[in-house]
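Provenance

Sequences were taken from public entries as deposited. Structures were produced by running a predictor on each sequence independently, with no templates supplied. The record for ABC transport system permease protein from Paenibacillus macquariensis is shown for reference.
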Amino acid sequence: MTLFSIARKTIRQNFSNYFLYFASMIFSIVIYFVFVSLKYDQTIQATSDTSPKINSVFSGAAVVLIIFVAVFIWYSNSFFTRKRKKEVGLYSLLGVRKKQIGRMLFYENFIMGCLALIVGILLGSVLSKFFVTILMKIMGYNAIVNFTISLEAIINTIIVFMIITLITSFHGYRLIYRFKLIELFQADKEGEQEPRTSFIIALLSILLIGIGYWLALQNMLDSAIWRKIGFLVTPLIIIITVILGTYLLFSSLTVYLLKVSRKNKKKYWNGINLIGTSQLLFRIKGNARTLTIIAVLSATTLTAVGAAYSLYYNNRSNVEMADPSSMMFIAEDNNIAEQVNGMITNSKDHDLIYHEALSTLQVDADVTNLNSKFYSDEMIYTVVSNRDFNTIAKLQGRNDVLSLQSNEAAVLDAMYSEQMSPVYVGATISLKINDRKENVTFNHLKKYSIFNYRTAGTTIVVSDELFAGLAKEIQPENMLLYKITNEDNAEQLTKDVQAIMPDEARFSSFYADYAAGLESSGLLIFMGGFLGLVFLTATGSIIYFKQLTEANSDKERYEILHKIGVNKKEIRLVIAKQMAFIFGLPLIAGIAHCAVALTALSRLLQINLVIPVMICMGVYTCIYIAYYFLTVNAYYKTVTKTK
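Predicted structure for ABC transport system permease protein:
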């Protein structure tokens, strides 16, 4: 029997232990293959005007995926090598040469990698059409997707994962050379001393995380501490303090709390609680690095996916804010205006809700008195009369009426930000009218606009008397506003209208901005979602492998417990409690880190992220819980399996 056949037989006999590792590798290969395939997909290139951007995004995502998968496979491999140490030591004791043992371990890992690569590419090829269809759907395209297999993607995937497999296989080959024989037989007893900790280090973990949270939740645009430390250095400090604090949280604070809980004799000696507490106490410090990595990855994944989904979720409301009218442009040519009227009124797919022509003014203004850090001393505003504002506001269903007198004014700013925009109400600006200035004072601030932002920008509403006087000195611009039904499906109508528009018309449309937002946010959520799933499956698998390794070490102890009268139900209960602690800690820490990061992002972007983030956290937690039950079941079967 050759070493290769022995390796193949070993994999076949222990496939149940390798299955999750094998499945995680396959999933990673499938996602990587899909990402690479999307770069070369003809449907995307023919449908999307931004296919170069899609190519670059997926190229970047593929690089991130390669790094993560390589680390995951290496990390997982180290768990399996520890599990195999005693077996390897036995081979060596029986006289098998180190070179032969190393080759056998090399073959085992290489076979697993090749099998995963073959299955992953086959599944990726079969599912490629499905994934492209999903991407087209969330990006708002209705293209017909043809089934194609990219030869470039296959070659790329084979090269990348063969390199990773060869490196990890060589790592397995070196196992027999890296440890002495006695170390191989006593591998299960490593790290079994009770960990030491101190109240000061435990307190330091909370302090470090608190500092990171406090810095993250500061108003970065107005914060003196951000300006003093620097806008590039502060985020780095936040990352370092939170990661270090998380590590100390798992390695010191949890140990300290477990030791404190042990002093509660009534609870500690109740049933077999002492077994579970002791197991956690002796193992938690050894798991600290793993739990920290998982907590940080969970936070990163949730933050990235939550932010991407928030943009996708809020896309329509953001576009409705920026484009209250379905189409809007400056009409300098009556012929073009008549053509547009004909196109819209004759459209079979859309009904006209309103069509208004308004006289507006483009005015330069001295805004020095606004005292804004982010505004220059001069701004260009679109000026509209009080009467026209009330008319359009009523058509748009705003139920908002202004009654301005003399030099009173209201500002309409759909992009208003409490952090970046000036304090308008009470401020006075000077409108430049030829060789003179006309002062107006803002009495009202409206955080919306009756005009599309791309066409009109920030708008000022003035009294009818003042507008009439200004119109005698400044050439008015005729703005046309259209509101139609089914505006988010007005692709062809928008293209037809846009085709006849000159640049100076400053044409804007709801559909164009909605489709652009859907495309960019859809691309982000597709990439973030699938990368997030890879991270989740990998981190869940890491905990699974780690606990399964410990289960094999603990098997004899649980057999002794069973012999002295502890029934299997009690054993399962103590295992479930242990796993809840191991799974719950990084999940809670990751969610807490994510919540702070997204709260800071929400404040900066002035976007409500609660609903989309809660959805992402719910899905993530459900998958994580599935891993928890899978691990509890596997651990229980391992420690109760009879010889």
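The CA atoms of residues 359 and 478 lie 5 Å apart.
The chain is about 65% helix and 10% strand.
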